[in-house]
């Protein structure tokens, strides 16, 4: 199989896996009081934008791979704060001071789905970053 096609398939698979994970994790949060919070509302909005960008990146991967890679990195960065919020709520309370609806139970929570989301986002961003680097190297070699 062509190396270029293999990279496109890997990037599309990583984006698709991320889109599925983001969709599955975020559907339970829509329409709850979580979406109306001072901190959690914007986190959920960023997450929603990231989920749309992952779908866009899957569609663009086979036509405009470098643009799709940049979109994938952006989508990963937009979705990451929500996963971090569920994994390290104490960190958010230190950064964003103010009244919180519920008292802090612990600084770190072992939320397997959030940790898997962080792991999948890391893989997607790594594949996209590699795609950007490889495409840039090929372009510079062709022009030399």
Give a verbal description of the structure.
The chain is mainly α and 144 residues long. The protein has one domain. The protein has 5 helices and no strands. The chain has helices at 3-26, 40-60, 65-87, 89-95, 112-143. The radius of gyration is 17 Å and the shape is elongated. The mean pLDDT is 83.
Q: Which of globular, elongated, flat, extended, rod-shaped describes the shape?
A: elongated
Report Rg. 17 Å
Number of helical segments? 5
SS-based structural class? mainly alpha
Number of strands: 0
The biggest sheet, with number of strands, parallel, antiparallel or mixed sense and barrel status, is: none
- Helix % is over 70%
Low-confidence stretches: none
Strand content: under 5%
Distance between the termini: 27 Å
- How many domains in all? 1
Summarize model confidence as the mean pLDDT. 83
H-E order? HHHHH
Quick tags:
5 helices; mainly alpha; 144 residues
Task: Give the gist of this structure.
This protein has 144 residues and is mainly α. It contains 5 helices and no strands.
Topology:
Layout: H1 3-26, H2 40-60, H3 65-87, H4 89-95, H5 112-143
């Amino acid at each position: 199989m062509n190396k270029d096609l293999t990279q496109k398939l890997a990037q599309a698979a990583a984006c698709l896996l991320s889109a599925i994970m983001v969709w599955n994790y975020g559907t339970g949060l829509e329409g709850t009081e979580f979406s109306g919070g001072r901190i959690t509302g914007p986190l959920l909005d960023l997450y929603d934008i990231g989920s749309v960008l992952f779908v866009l990146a899957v569609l663009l991967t086979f036509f405009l791979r470098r643009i799709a890679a940049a979109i994938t990195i952006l989508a990963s960065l937009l979705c990451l704060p929500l996963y971090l919020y569920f994994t390290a709520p104490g960190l958010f309370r230190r950064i964003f001071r103010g009244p919180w609806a519920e008292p802090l139970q612990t600084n770190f929570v072992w939320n397997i789905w959030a940790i898997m989301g962080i792991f999948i986002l890391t893989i997607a961003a790594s594949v996209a970053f590699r795609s950007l680097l490889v495409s840039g190297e090929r372009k510079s070699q062709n022009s030399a």
